[in-house]
Records
---
Amino acid sequence: MNSTAIPVVTIDGPAGSGKGTIARQVAEILGYHYLDSGSLYRILALSSQQQQVENDDLEALVELCQTMLISFEVSSVDENVRVFLSNQDVSGQLRTEECAARASQLAAHPQLRSALLERQHAFRVLPGLVAEGRDMGTVVFPDSNTKIFLTASVHERATRRQKQLKKQGIGASLDHLLKEIEARDSRDENRAISPLRPAKDAVLVDSTDLSIDQVVQRIVEIVRR
Ligand code: C5P
């Protein structure tokens, strides 16, 4: 079967817009597979750091993109997706803001983006895929049938991040989180390659004043329309 006949729902948006939680729930309702493309950039950041590969050693980084041994598993304890690098659970290490910042620096290199493209396409299998990230609808799956661009105010996104960290027992000031999110938004929106922006045919959903359930419901309605 031609892979372009396999349905894909793309959900793009900035850091902290709730894409992860929402995309996972939409995938579950539709019975589709799920791709968290950001985790691939985060794994690259972590793996290169572990192997002491410099941020500008593109040859070594491209090789890592091609050879990193990655797997995903849904935890039976909390139903969260656990990420494994070379069979080691690295989920906690991937969630740090330090890892995200390094990921966003690496993500600005065209060679690394194209090296990760094939790995992302491999997730497109029946019965369908929900893919979330920054360029799912614009670059990775431009032929997707349903494209969502999820936003929320930067203040709301920083507040959500603060709550999430608090749950993990980590304290962080709102001011500091606002600055980190703004810096990452700006890098993601202004890079020359695959910048964060809605596809022309994307439906914009603003989650600032909506609950997770409301956003999930709205997206499922759009998919089924
Ligand atoms: O989505 P998440 O916050 O995990 O992504 C981490 C970083 O990876 C983003 O800030 C962005 O720079 C990069 N990324 C990307 N394209 C994607 C997904 C993530 O450039 N499709």
---
Amino acid sequence: MQIETPPQHKPYEKPEGERRGLLIVNTGDGKGKSTAAFGLALRAFGRTHVHGKQVKIFQFMKVPTARFGEHRMFEQIGIPIEGLGDGFSWKSQDLEHSAQLARDGWQKAKAAIQSGDYFMVVLDEFTYPLIYGWLEPIGGIEAVVQTLFDRPRDVHVVITGRRCPPELIELADTVTEMRKIKHAFNIGIPAQRGIED
Ligand code: ATP
Ligand code: MG
């Protein structure tokens, strides 16, 4: 078996910068954006004894009553997860209602970020309200970027969703693209309990 040769050089220099809250983006068309964000929330929650703060998850496209595996588990361990949407789909009858929910949701998420009460705030599927232009009446992407830029410096923010706007990518510290190589859905396998929800 061929094993990789050990690296001759360190892959990066010794970090010289200060620790601070990060803006982390998980985007792309492959599976894993939300689940990776949930993994980070779990990791952060596991260090509550160090930072002494809460972790909060907002979901922009899920309904408040969603009961996926993550909702059940986060409820058990005590990580608040809040659906802000109406389960928008392309069939949605009332786009203006979805848009209004997204605006209300952003005001809530913004308040949580600005409060400084949270070690980490996850904005799951936040790219969609931005792409659909739902936040335009309240300042759009520019206002979002300004809020994130001005946030208390120790607050970590994690954003997920496909087609992340370039303005957010530009501002972010860590950006990962989940690229689809294969997805079971494409060979006709339906969504499964415990894997997709
Ligand atoms: P997950 O929540 O599983 O981490 P995700 O957040 O990366 O997925 P979303 O774009 O939010 O992906 O998609 C939500 C649902 O769509 C999930 O059930 C996921 O399995 C499914 N999905 C993700 N990528 C693809 C794809 N390339 N083709 C079809 N379905 C996909
Ligand atoms: Mg997702």
